[in-house]
Amino acid sequence: MLMENIKPRGGGLIADHVEKFRGIVRDILDIAEATYGVEDLEWHLERALLVLQQNPELRPQFESELVSLLDPIEEGVIEIVSYTMHELRWPAVESAIGEKISEPGVDVSDVRLYSAMLDAFSDSWRDRDLYARFDR
């Protein structure tokens, strides 16, 4: 890494990691909109997971980023949340999904999507075999 790309912890480096994650999320959402299936997404999902894992001090910011994706649910959101949370199991994200399910007047279709995301917090996540990382 070039030294000029390294910024002090006073906010620059933190903002860079959060912005990098946002960029990966945008890539995933764009690809998910244009394709069907997870094969084209997995490399990008792995990139997103890596950013989250390599920056544990930014967990509160990343939790906020993930929770912000929950409404409205776009193509690719289920994959982002499910893939990363199957590995990380962050309670704040799990709780936010549970709250979405419990909202008055929530659409039945959205309940199914939120339930699919919650399933990823389990060792027996039914969609894990769709991804090379979890297909064991």
Number of strands: 0
Mean pLDDT: 90
> Which value, in Å, is the CA radius of gyration?
15 Å
Low-confidence stretches: 1-10
Spell the H/E element sequence. Answer: HHHHHH
Specify the structural class: mainly alpha
How much strand content do the residues show? under 5%
From the spread of the alpha carbons, the general shape counts as globular
Please work out how many helical segments DSSP would assign: 6
**What's the N-to-C terminus distance?**
35 Å
Q: Give the biggest beta sheet.
A: none
Helix content: 55-70%
Topology, please?
Blueprint: H1 12-34, H2 42-54, H3 59-68, H4 77-88, H5 91-102, H6 108-119
Helix pairs in contact: 1-2, 2-4, 3-5, 4-6, 5-6
Keywords:
136 residues; globular; mainly alpha; disordered N terminus; 6 helices
Characterize this entry briefly.
The protein is built from six helices and no strands.
Describe this structure in words.
The protein has 136 residues and is mostly helical. Helix content is 60%, strand content 0%. It has helices spanning 12-34, 42-54, 59-68, 77-88, 91-102, 108-119. The longest helix has 23 residues, at 12-34. The protein is globular. Residues 1-10 have low confidence and may be disordered.
